[in-house]
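Supplementary Methods. Inverse-folding protocol.

Structures were first reduced to a discrete structure-token string of length 265. This string, shown here, constituted the complete conditioning input.
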């Protein structure tokens, strides 16, 4: 599957950037799926399996947790949960039992999906190719469909939080009166729409852009063949910081949005 194995450099890059997609025959152009009703099976399957693995393991550890000094995986999971919980306590100033579990879910899940970038770029496609699968993108967060799905979900939870805390009347009052007062209600409304729409867009594009760029670097390094090791190892070590930071940023922005929704002017 390398450039030396029959693909040109452009073909090799394009191959690694193509999702395993399914769609109706009417949506296919030149044998590839296009249009809205296209499902990226690799994104759905890999993200789903990672979620089941992570949260299944956490649920199992919770069932076996002891009140004494934790050890092993229990210690690691408690450390992650404690870190996230502290961030929620410092940032979220409302009262909700949803925010901490939501933040934990986002951080753990996004981190694991990002971490798929540390697997050599040719390994999983070669394994999939042995089973007749010709395309496979192993990093779900390099698919804008997934990052936008997550950010839109956060957006709807934010809207629900606004309605739950402020009520419909209070929410509408905030939209039309902040920050310039009721006399400039149309201006306030326009500003609020732009602000709210920008939140899911920036949340999705930030994660997608950083992970897509990291994946491209790994693909370009893989094209070097035998000379890739001196570059791949330092970049992989640096990339551990990137994948952790991106998961943390996505989580923190979600907490901030929930805090803004729970506050009243």
């Amino acid at each position: 599957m390398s450039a030396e194995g029959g693909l040109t450099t452009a073909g090799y890059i394009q191959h690694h950037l193509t999702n395993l997609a399914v769609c109706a025959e009417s949506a296919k152009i030149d044998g590839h799926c296009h249009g809205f009703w296209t499902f990226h099976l690799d994104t759905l399957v890999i993200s789903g399996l990672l979620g089941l693995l992570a949260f299944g393991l956490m649920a199992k550890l919770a069932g076996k947790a002891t009140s004494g000094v934790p050890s092993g995986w229990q210690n690691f999971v408690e450390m992650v949960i404690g870190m996230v919980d502290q961030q929620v306590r410092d940032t979220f100033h409302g009262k909700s039992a949803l925010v901490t579990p939501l933040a934990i879910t986002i951080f753990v899940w996004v981190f694991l999906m990002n971490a798929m970038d540390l697997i050599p770029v040719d390994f999983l496609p070669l394994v999939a190719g042995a089973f007749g699968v010709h395309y496979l993108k192993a990093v779900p967060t390099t698919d804008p469909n997934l990052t936008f799905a997550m950010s839109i979900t956060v957006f709807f939870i934010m809207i629900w939080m606004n309605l739950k805390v402020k009520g419909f009347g209070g929410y509408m009052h905030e939209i039309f009166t902040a920050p310039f007062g009721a006399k400039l209600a149309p201006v306030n409304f326009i500003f609020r729409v732009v602000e709210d729409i920008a939140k899911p867009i920036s949340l999705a594009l930030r994660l997608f852009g950083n992970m897509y760029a990291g994946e491209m670097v790994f693909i370009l390094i893989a094209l070097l063949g035998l000379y890739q090791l001196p570059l791949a190892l330092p970049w992989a070590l640096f990339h551990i910081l990137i994948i952790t930071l991106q998961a943390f940023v996505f989580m923190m922005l979600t907490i901030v949005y929930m805090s803004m929704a729970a506050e009243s002017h």
